[in-house]
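Entry type: protein chain
Record version: 2
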Amino acid sequence: MTLLPPTESFRQKSDSDRATKGEPDSIDKTNRRLKTFAALQNNRDYRFLWVGNLAANSAQWLQIFTIGWLVFSISGGSALHSVAVAGIRSLPILAIGPWAGVLADRLDRRKLAIASQSSLAVLAAIFALVVAAGLVEVWHAYTYMALAGIGFAIKQPVRQALVANTVQRSDLANAMALNAMSVTSMRLAGPLLGGILITTLGFKWNFFFEAGLYIVMVLLLIPMRTPYRESSARSTKTSHRGGLTGSLMEGLRYIFENAVMRRLTVVNFVRTAVFMPLVLLLPVYTEQALGAGVGTGSIMIAVMGVGGFTATIIMATWGFFAKKGAVVLITLITGSMAILVLGFSHWIWLSLAMMVVMGFSQTHFIVSNQTLIQSVVPDDLRGRVSSVWHYESGLIPLAAVAIGYTADQVNINIALISVGIGALALGVFFAIRYQDIWSLD
């Protein structure tokens, strides 16, 4: 495989696209400023995918929020169980995530998405019945989340690759921002819905709603098509000669032989390990640090969604506040500082403000990082590259258990202070060491 030079690959790809489409080198930015929903307006199939993602992401946040509080309740207030049960959903990614990427490049991505969402709907409905019957125990919750993690591991690289398959390349950055909006808006709505259902109807209805939301996405994927799915004779030949293992190694070589791609992936691993466990820790943090309950916990996630939603509106409408590579490094540092302040905080309003900063920083990071990667990766490698990008999600249970254990042994504030200091140190190191990332746009 011939790789473009590490830094120049992004610039050359962009120049090539403009030449192919007959676009001028200088684009009228004024005409683009108000095109917040350009990808939705210009691409019929992306509309199906985006609305479906709204439903699926709502189900995801409803699940994460509810399972933590359910286990916290039935385990006698264990911080470790509350964090680990939600984090275990990401564990199957370590075993099957890369192979899911291979399948996403060899099979019909739309059908894979339908299959994974359907399985998640069935699992959620069965678990809801167990909860409704009053039979639920901690091991039931662990089993449910582990099985759901298999569907999660398959759907993540598939759904990310489908974004590029349903939009024209000129709309890719806008589509990535809108895709993040489907996450952040549901991070706002999902926990609010979850908190209302828990306090009024009990835990079981959360999981019935979760199952219904997965079904909504399945129904929307049925009429969707992938007009921008590309084929590659080179990739097909390699895949048939080397089988699944050969396909997997081809994707890994593409990442590790490209310095910029490798560094963007490493930085994303750190972001996930230090940012994502925070969501799982909220039941513990809310009770131990703030002395509050499930209502405040739902608001904590909701305001994080506000920060993320604001970030997506800004990016979709006006673009990024700096070059995308610089945004990646800056927001890793600001998010780490927010975690550090949360560790020192015992005041609800300060903690809420830091959750807004976290949502704003993390969303900018994700969209910038994904757009840089998806802009240059060949379509026949998208599934495999996306699966490696999401492989870091498998670190969430390990990081969450470590932080939860520290919280049980000492307290949640000390645990978060330690995480914040470590994350900030790594962020500064990357900002100094990865000088080539700063110039990526």
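Comment: Residues 36-226+237-438 form a domain with the Growth Hormone; Chain: A; fold (CATH 1.20.1250.20).
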